[in-house]
Amino acid sequence: MELDQLQQTVVNALEDVKATNIEVIDTTKLTALFDRMIIASGNSGRQTRALARNVQDEVKKAGGAVNSVEGEDGGDWVLVDLGTIIVHIMQPAVRAYYNLEELWKATPSHPKPSKP
């Protein structure tokens, strides 16, 4: 499955189950492990599990493969590994605590020379 098609399938699957704050991060210049990270919030463990299940179902329906799923037991943070895309579905407090967006969007900073 093509990357853009897979990304759209995931976003649509998340929207179908009312995920909030869906964010897509292009990681191609940051890591060779995957090309996109998609982060979304669910309001409860039940919703995060439903979101993860819907992502898996829709990706499989579209002809894609699901490599693995972690965290479904607890539901605070469910990770769905689709190979080229990693999907993080988190409850808001967990998402705020780990702040993955800031970690993965951060560009290397170079110290500016101090002014005399």
TrEMBL record:
Repressor keyword on record:
yes
Q: Work out whether the entry's keyword set contains Amino-acid biosynthesis.
A: no
Keywords, A to Z, come to: Cytoplasm, Repressor, Translation regulation
This entry's Gene Ontology molecular function terms read: ribosomal large subunit binding
**Got a GO cellular component term for this one?**
cytoplasm
As recorded in UniProt, coiled-coil segments are: none
Name the predominant localization. Answer: cytoplasm
Gene Ontology terms: biological process: cytosolic ribosome assembly; negative regulation of ribosome biogenesis; negative regulation of translation
Q: InterPro entries, alphabetically? A: Iojap/RsfS/C7orf30, NT_sf
- SUPFAM superfamilies registered for this protein in UniProt: Nucleotidyltransferase
Subcellular localization is given as: Cytoplasm
Q: What does this protein do?
A: Functions as a ribosomal silencing factor. Interacts with ribosomal protein uL14 (rplN), blocking formation of intersubunit bridge B8. Prevents association of the 30S and 50S ribosomal subunits and the formation of functional ribosomes, thus repressing translation.
By sequence similarity, the record places it as follows:
Belongs to the Iojap/RsfS family.
Subunit note: Interacts with ribosomal protein uL14 (rplN).
Q: What is this protein called?
A: Ribosomal silencing factor RsfS
